[in-house]
Amino acid sequence: MLLDFTDFGASWTSACLSIFCVFTFSVFLYGWHPITWWRLRNIPGPRGRWLMGNLPEIIPAGPHEVYSQWAQKYGKVFKYFAGAQPVVVINDAEMARLVSLRLSTRPQARNPATLMPPKEAAFQRNGLFSTNDKEYHRSMKHAWLPVFNSASLEISSKEMNIGAERLAAVLTKFAKQGKEVNIWRQFGYMTMDVVGTTAFGVELRTQEGEKGLNSEEAERLVWAAQTIFATSSVKASIYTQPGALMPFLDPLMRVLARYFPDAGLRTAMKARHILRSTVADLVRETREREAAGVVTAAKATEPGAAPTVGEARKRARGVQPGSFLNLMINSKHEASGRAVTNDEATAQAFTFLLAGYETTASALAFTIYTLAKHPEKTEKLIQEIDSVGRNASIGPAELARMPYLDACLKESMRLYPPGHITPRQPINEDFTVKGYSIPKGTWIHMPIFTLQRSEEYYSKPLEFIPERWVEGTPEETALNKKVPGSWMAFGEGTRSCVGQRFALQEAKITLARLFQRFTFRLSPGQEDEAGLQLQSFFTLGPKEGIFVTPVLRTEE
Ligand code: HEM
């Protein structure tokens, strides 16, 4: 009997056609996320585009701007889609605080690390910021805390004064030539210097024209840290982007990324490798020396344990006694008593450097910006600083006598919070807050930038009025409604910023040391926010920088 190939061909074609139609319909349906939409139907929000969701609105302007507009249109709680990812935004101080206190898991950022081999990805998750393992997080946070106790902060205040003095030397050159400087960038070099020394006990000496003993190693570390920061977004590699729209493509992207990495991914991996291997070498050498009885590691909690700058200069390599890394490698997990591994210690030092460098630089740059726009407030601040000591080194005792400095920084961080969103994600079960049911997997964003500029919590919310933070002033009573959760620049709850005391001390010492010597003239065109241009991807910062001309006070 002969086979009828005409029939077979027809049924084959119709089968293919059916598969194609089902596939196309599924992709079409998938692009509207109908199930998630249905589950979030009681929360209003903008209708996004097919597959892309609201990314086309969010990406160009940045969440800080778009959230403010959507809050006006949809109210305090709204939803949107970042590609396939549902996001619920909570723009209510009380609720935001409640969520931060009750939920302790954070979404994993989609960046090149998402595509890296499992070992590398696991290393990334070991950092205090990224981990969602509750027990491990508790244990690690406990291990971090001694670096921020009063004795350690007294010690690090010396490094901070040195960092500020080096910066002042750089700014003096600009002042003498009457030239403008991108103060944001300079603060970046300085904070990198300070966190680098604190984290590793290795002098990075990143500020202009400086060469430390460890300069080659330091330069590699600085390049690596800056590159990791610059490549920490979904835009860094072509392979991270498809998964933002269709997460089921991630396994395929991981394979492609492994065999055909693009330039963005290669750079990101190189930077991570440098940072990781440099730190791992430092840790290994120190462990070997300790085993041989050459160095007895001191604890950071012991006053005077941190190296003086002179000492640090003499040491070419190894983890310095008193540094954060030294503290980490001598720590044990609280519950199990297990020693912290090299990889865990390295991941913490890595986190310390990344979390502590750009945030503090932006907070400083925005404070210079707001003060430069308000000479009368600068004048008041200078009077306070001079009354404590015009050329004096500044430590915790001096800072305690500068309430107006504290108020200026707090007010500037209200208007320009570098950590502009506190994110959370219910991972294992749905989450309910004040009658809103939020399905597990949804990202929850507390938009600190929008909250801190709300008329509901502050009168004249867009004006820079430091007095609203000074106890006993009429402004404090009239302009600050003191609603819990309305100032959350360092977050709230178990995941709040571990480096808050360190960051505030560093910022205040730097500001005091600079205003002892300079005032700052804002370059034209930045007077309003349209001229300033903010960017808010990972953190909130100025897009290009903040440009000022330092003016030596003796020449005023
Ligand atoms: C002005 C500077 C800084 C700002 C504005 C800032 C802001 C923040 C914010 C908003 C969070 C998230 C809080 C939450 O989710 O509730 C955070 C977390 C964190 N910050 Fe900072 N930070 C600053 C400086 C630093 C410094 C200097 C360090 C380290 C030395 C640091 C280390 C961390 C770490 C490790 C976390 C994660 C904590 C955890 O998950 O338990 N930050 N920071």
UniProtKB/TrEMBL annotation:
What InterPro entries has UniProt attached to this entry? Cyt_P450, Cyt_P450_CS, Cyt_P450_E_grp-I, Cyt_P450_sf
What keywords is this UniProt entry annotated with? Heme, Iron, Membrane, Metal-binding, Monooxygenase, Oxidoreductase, Transmembrane, Transmembrane helix
* Origin superkingdom: Eukaryota
TM ranges: 12-32
Q: Which SUPFAM superfamilies match?
A: Cytochrome P450
Which species is this UniProt entry from? Coccomyxa subellipsoidea
Annotated Pfam families: p450
Name under which the protein is recorded: Cytochrome P450
Q: Give the similarity note.
A: Belongs to the cytochrome P450 family.
